[in-house]
Amino acid sequence: MRGMLLALREGFVAGMIARAQLSLVVLALCAPGIRAQASSASLPHTLTDLDTKRMAEAERGEAVTITLDAPDKTEIAMLGVVRIPVPRAFYLDRVHDLSGFLVTGMRSAAGRFSDPARSDDVAALALEQSDAKALEKCKPFSCDVKLPADMMERLRSELAESRDPAPKADSLMREWVIAYVNAYRADSSEELVVYDDTKRSVRSSEAFRVLRSEPMPAGIDSQPFAQMLALPRSARPADVASRISWEIDRLSGLKPTLEVVERSIYSPSASPAESYMTTKLLYASHYFESQIDFITIADAQAPTGGPDIYLVIVRRQKFDDLPSGGLFSIRGKAVKKLREGLRATLANTRVEMVKAYAQSASAAGRAP
Fold it and tell me: Which residue range is the domain that position 12 belongs to?
């Protein structure tokens, strides 16, 4: 087993990811209980039926997702893999504006921040009616919207004087988000919001550092991500491109959530067959203390000889609280819902990329 993992890591880091090699990465992650020796040139022969099924699904282009071990009950970690029959350059060109790396189908509104952020950037931002109403009653350690204590006090005070609190709540939140994004950019240590909505204050930066410090699954190179997220920012490679956006996501069964995220992309010359992307959560109005996506886009040789890519994502999320015992296991339900959501997102991303590539090829008068 040790020999297999070493072969995986060396193959991934060196950028020599061929079809069989990345298949081994997927197998190592999907089947941590395998007790077999393997080299990068052959697949293990002692797989269970489930492992074989997963591998076949991934090779057919179906989205595969699994839950990873997490050190804390409030964290959920997942791995997702999908194979997409498009060139890596095409995929990167489609996401070059950094407004989104995956097709979620959950985003109801979104906008990008200028540098510096200004009011025009959030003109379309509007809170849910229930959130606007909740803000009228917000006070530290008792609030249905995640915010710092000083902002809760301001909202409660100013909304109490308004006959129609919803427009005022929208205006105050837009103002706060703009100020927060500009302050984040000005702070080289990237300290994030402090949440005072529950029984204890939570520093989002500390939650993020916990997620960032956890080891990557075997076979995934952590070095590019460490470079992309290095502090101070001046320590990062000059060709790491980043953008901050806001979006409102709607997941079935959950409250619509306003999120502010920073997306970054990096194609290091030392890894000519891979590119790397991160999505860092800067703020969430509900549920999340922190979240980060580590995404690898790796070249793969298609059976027909054309270019394919593997999209590999490690997603780590830290929540307010996820009780796992008793009659109602919130954590178990959340894990299932989020894993299914990630699988659907990867599948949708594949469909959209294949469709866009076919249209591009048709317009150019060439075969896709």
Answer: 1-60
